[in-house]
Please model this.
Amino acid sequence: MLSDAPSQPASDALGGRRSPPAGGPARLLADVHADGTWTTLAEHRSRYSPPPAPKREPDDRIIDLVDEAGLRGRGGAGFPTGRKLRTVSQGRAPRIVIGNGTEGEPASAKDRLLMSRLPHLVIDGALLAAAAVGADRIGIGVERNNTEAVKAMRDALAERAEHEPLPISFRVAGTPPRYVGGEETGLVHWFNNGPAMPTFVPPRPFEKGVDGRPTLVQNVESLAHITQIVAHGPDWFREVGTAEEPGTALATVSGAVNRASVVEAAIGTPIGKIVESAGGSTARVGAMLLGGFFGTWVRGDAALAAPFSRAGLSPLNASPGAGIMCVLSEDACGLAETARILAWFAAESAGQCGPCLYGLADLARGAAGLSEATSAPSDLANLFLWAHEIEGRGACKHPDGAVRLLRSAATVFAEDWDRHARGERCRGQSAPPTIRVPVPPPVWR
Ligand SMILES: Cc1cc2nc3c(=O)[nH]c(=O)nc-3n(C[C@H](O)[C@H](O)[C@H](O)COP(=O)(O)O)c2cc1C
Ligand code: SF4
Model:
């Protein structure tokens, strides 16, 4: 963890500096109101200067600040944000910025918290990203059922129109409730008036995105970090976190915890400490689902001791993803939870790639049979064969996520797996589900 770097004044040329949040890990969330209301423009402006108006020419000063800060995207893949800004800025002008606030991961709540409570932090980040790459248009995609976030973002834009007119076109769009609609090509496809389904790549959005223009797709938490980096400087950003993964990140903690919540933590913080911030676990921790439904199971003791970082979780074949961590109590059945999540994966297939459409349904059926201890031995042998056959064969990585989850379940719950395969039920099977799996929406194609 870094703690020795003094914070340097941020670029005065970009609007000067207000005092950064002091003490504690809360940086993004430092200004969240306890009463649930959102931070107004006047409050926001008491801390952050207005961003420069985007021009056709990219603003390299912003890209340099983000680069020096070492920010990595918070939407799941952890790609270096400065590098992405630079690549888009080098594309054909004018460019487009899309904020990804779709948050299709059922176990994630951090993006909706940010948008519904701190909309101006996200809006300023989008404007700064637009200035950085030389964009003439901004769109933010927010899942349309997430009404609180859609309303707060739109109200915040209306507040700007009155007090601080927006320098470029800025739209908040309600997107369809579909997990793969949050994958960047799916989101771009939807902004292009197509269905919210991933498209085969290349071209990737940075080459040819909305209206065929170079398009920057950035998670809304990443945008909020850009606002703080420009305001307080890269050295301030690097005061916490690790050298390779600086700063804080938002984690959504749920499952067998006393207070399911969104926690802001310095990257590298032990996961056990983050669970404590969510009121601690309600029972002995048997396993944790790290990175969400798109992540992996990790044994409880190993997960609690591991640092919340890509480097720290990599030896466990896990990743923080978009910061999701679900706690499974020791007496719950990990295979039953896995079977329910795989059923969700199958229902969420966009249905346009055969191996995903049929393969995920087979995986879900096989896992349900295993969980209920009703599988024939041949079904179990087939499970891994099917997994192998669908891996890497979709337009997007949706089926790969299901395969990864299944494989991690086979390792972490190996004893339960053998017991279920022998047709024995486990004691956890009658326990109520721990991980919240939403009822899949009706399939649309
Ligand atoms: C199936 C799938 C679903 C995704 N859903 C989201 C999402 O809900 N929100 C998000 O920000 N990124 C999501 N992503 C990642 C995006 O494709 C993209 O990498 C991200 O928005 C880039 O932003 P970042 O660099 O700031 O992380 C998803 C990716 C996949 C493969
Ligand atoms: S892999 Fe599945 S979810 Fe992804 S585009 Fe193809 S059908 Fe849709």
